[in-house]
Amino acid sequence: MRTEDLTGLPEGVPEALCDEGIAELYPPQAAAVEAGVTDGDSVVASVPTASGKTLIAELAMLSAVQRGGKALYIVPLRALASEKKAEFERWEEFGVTVGVSTGNYESDGEWLATRDIIVATSEKVDSLIRNNAPWIDDLTCVVADEVHLVDDRNRGPTLEVTLAKLRRINAGLQTVALSATVGNADTVAEWLDAELVQSDWRPIDLKMGVHFRNAVNFGDGSQREVQTDRSEKAESALVADALDETDDEGNRGSSLVFVNSRRNAESSAKRLASVTESRLTGDERADLAELAEEIRQVSDADTSDDLADVVAKGSAFHHAGLASEHRSLVEQAFRDRLIKVVSATPTLAAGVNTPSRRVIVRDWRRYDGDAGGMKPLDTLEVHQMCGRAGRPGLDPYGEAILLANDSETMDELFERYVWADPEPVRSKLAAEPALRTHLLATVASGFATTRDALLEFLDQTLYATQTEKSGRLEEVTDSVLDYLHANDFLDRDDGTLKATNIGHTVSRLYLDPMSAAEIIDGLEDGPRGTSKSASASRSRPAAAGSTASADGDEETAGFQTASELAGDATEDDSETDDADTADTGDEFTELGLYHLVCRTPDMYQLYLKSGDKTTYTELNYEHEDELLGRAPTEWQEAEFEDWLSALKTAKLLDDWASEVDEDRICERYGVGPGDIRGKVETAEWLLRAGEQLAQELDLPVVPVRRARKRIEYGVREELLDLAGVRNVGRKRARRLFEAGIESRVDLRDADKSVVLAALRGREKTAERILENVGRQDPSMETVEADSETAAEAAEADAGRDGQASLGDFG
Ligand SMILES: Nc1ncnc2c1ncn2[C@@H]1O[C@H](COP(=O)(O)OP(=O)(O)OP(=O)(O)O)[C@@H](O)[C@H]1O
């Protein structure tokens, strides 16, 4: 089908597509058009990687807008939201407006109601529905990208419930679901009442094979000789082999290496740097040196230096421990073919369109806590990784290679991945943690007011489509309703379900009800060293299946975590009148409050390494009077270990709030800057939620707010005022304080030369800060800085001057 023959799109769009080089639709795209995707019909497209799914979505959305409607594009990762928005913005010249729904309520509000196409993660959409975003009712088309992720234990249920809700709110809503090739796309289509488009077609040839001894054996029977000697790892030989081949356009082949842990990503990148370094041109070396310097400036943690060191040689690693600036710099340079190889954990597998002629799946097993050992990856996941190779317009072909050390493993890899079909997707909805939060939200937003109505709503989910008997769902629903009722989140009068005030708040805050219960209990009980704790206020039955994870290596990068949704329900840091709260809560300490929020299922706790148990058991006894609620005894082994993991996580936050250097924290807890940022954001959100709950229940608000602000800025209490000024941040605040400027008032009145010296002679920064604090005349032009002091200070901080640290958010 020719693009110019497309109808129903805004004027000029078919021509624009032709100008982009899309003159002919790919076969799966043509099949989607035949199935009615441009006529408002629902379609599930289950097609291979790189087969142009985005255009199917665009055709659906643009034709919906042309008919006067409004479209929503649901992305699986937050990072993809801005990428997709940028992609769709090219339609603005044809009168189609585009908006992205970020975590920030301010920027979303009414403004999104004016957009034709809105891009958001499923968590964000769920949150917007809970908060009654007015434009949800106006949607006529919804696209779910990577719909196979309904199978994901943690995030799948949200996508599933969100789609079910949207379809219920808007009768006749066109639903377009884009999926990888999966085993049961027909069930997904049945669930969504959609036409199914299924195909094996791929625009660029992608060969899958296994490397063993001195050759890659491909699934199609062909072979490629790649010699490895004993001293060289196969991955190095394969990366070198790809780089040594130049395509017609003069591009050398880049590689993407998938490994199963951060440490492996870093060591692999280091090893591969020696392969890439010797193959760089002089210009590339110079550009990479510049990039490496930029990477070093991102943060002062060791990870920054480690990454910069390998990047200078043309290699990089990519994992969730990196700061997001690191990640985007690496992705961009890989896209520009400056970085020749990236060793990544699977976070990079989702949806990125990068030039990699060769994908090497080095680790096909991953540690699985539930299984208590290494577990092979799913076929679907490995196929998604492999699909990053050979992208249209970027490489002439793609190769995806698994590594085997013996012939038995080679056979297994062929069976498991090369020749295997991907698994069917299975709903993960009937689990207590998922239903706890979604059932409360469903009742709170008025979707269902009786048990039967709830079950009827759940009947519209994939779970119900897939399961003959809904007994399990009923059982879990009843147990969750009991839990919500026992914790005062729901009232049950004469069979009518109604959210209580606090239940409404919990739902709007996007909290797991179990987190809310834990926080409320902790604040009610108070520190164990006070008399309050003796009288445990409400006894809450524990719900099974907390989502708390002791996995220190979780890969949540880019997911829209609940903490990013906080803005939807909270009034952006609106200060409540402290005088309202009779109880000043002096007995609460920061460590106690951090420990409280770290115990909730909404926080990923740090993993206890060997030796940590003793360290944190000691710390627990040292600080036991500060901790909130009842501690488990050492005999309750699992609970006690969770308690200690939470304490380790809380200690990291406490260090951050005590101005411990970022690199010290990374070293002490074995984390990267991205982890610190992640933990800080989550804790900030949970404490903010804690403030709201405390306010409503007449519990102490002040200490919770103080604890929140201290991690928000990463400072001790005396710097809170200063660190809140834009562009100041934790390090500059400390330097100003040491120069005798202790508050905003001091800063407004301070001698400019003192400010300048404290800011290491950086005039622009000083001006910006003075302007932000409301100084009438912030100009530094007339100031003769005490040049000696400024120079000395600058020298003392050589190499790190002016760089933004993680604390420099403000
Ligand atoms: N009909 C077409 N003709 C030429 N190029 C096309 C056509 N359709 C899409 N493309 C290009 O193909 C590339 C891959 O498309 P896209 O990213 O949509 O694939 P995808 O199916 O979403 O892949 P994945 O699931 O692996 O992320 C893009 O660069 C896109 O511009």
UniProtKB/TrEMBL annotation:
Helicase ATP-binding domain segment(s): 34-200
Biased composition (Acidic residues): 569-585
Catalytic activity reported: Couples ATP hydrolysis with the unwinding of duplex DNA by translocating in the 3'-5' direction; ATP + H2O = ADP + phosphate + H(+)
Region (Disordered): 521-585, 771-810
Any one biological process term the GO annotation gives: DNA repair
SUPFAM superfamilies (alphabetical): P-loop containing nucleoside triphosphate hydrolases (SSF52540), Sec63 N-terminal domain-like (SSF158702), Winged helix' DNA-binding domain (SSF46785)
Top EC category: isomerase
Family from the record: Belongs to the helicase family. Hel308 subfamily.
Subunit structure and binding partners: Monomer.
Its biological purpose: DNA-dependent ATPase and 3'-5' DNA helicase that may be involved in repair of stalled replication forks.
Full protein name: ATP-dependent DNA helicase Hel308
Species for this entry: Salinirubrum litoreum
Lineage of source species: Archaea, Methanobacteriati, Methanobacteriota, Stenosarchaea group, Halobacteria
